[in-house]
Amino acid sequence: MQRLIPTGDAARPVAFAEVPQPVPEPGEALIKVEAFAPNRGETFLLEQPRPELLPGKDIAGLVVQAAADGSGPGIGTRVVGHPAQGGWAEYAAVPTHSLTVLPDSIDSARAAALPLAGITALRLLRTAGSLAGRRVLLTGASGGVGHYVTELAVGAGAELTAVTSTPVRGERLAELGANVVHDVAAAQGPFDVVLESTGGPGLALALSKVRPGGLLVWFGQASRTPVSLDFFQLLGGPERVTIQHFHYAGAPYGSDLSALVSLVEQGRLHPEIGRTTDWAQTADTLVDLRERRIRGKAVLLTGGAR
User: Fold this and answer.
1) Is residue 102 part of a domain?
2) What residue numbers bound the domain in which 296 lies?
3) In DSSP terms, which residues pair with 135 in a beta bridge?
4) What residue stretches are annotated with the Enoyl reductase (ER) domain (predicted)?
């Protein structure tokens, strides 16, 4: 079968290789991958890839071999999955605890856009707690996670302000009900909750927008710049603010995938896909995703690439 493997070349970060099909563990199903969606964090890993790296966490496709232990869906079932790695390939072995069945109404491209960003959004909002009637600030909002957080938070009754780099990147967020600004400094606080994903100097500025006793959840560092906080400056800001580190990871993922699929099926969640193309274009798409030239998610379709 064909698999995309890292090259170590920033301009062409992956290339096709002919490799054996994966052999599933007893609790894994073998999936014929129809679509996959890279994440911006994966593009960073490709800059200096470790030798064993097999990229690919977000896939949708068809079960061609059911799990030997009897768990999970049977042969011929359409699924979306979140394997630990190895999804940028014609076939992927996925733990059944991290799969869920797809209804006919959801195509593989939309399904592939759900896992990492959607699971992150769900778990992030659970961390933030009830949002009805609360003022929320979301930084770095124009990626896949930001679109899901915005739609879910607004749907839960939050008054959400989203920070994006440009008006174009904020258009869909405004349609979803967010107040869009293009600099953290322009956000009109105070906020009950700040969801901060950029790091660098932006975090300290976002922290100054939190109300006394409020919460800042730090879930990313898209700027790739470390955060520096000054204790004495904090003394002049809001008191008793909680800063909470957040990382989405932790299997099993099946129940969260089921929740996301249900929300899409009900019309309450709409994957924002800025590009859908054949996986022959993966290398170029990864560069554009890394350089933030794609709004929302990018989805690659596996048919016909050689």
Assistant:
1) yes
2) 2-116+250-301
3) 159
4) 9-300
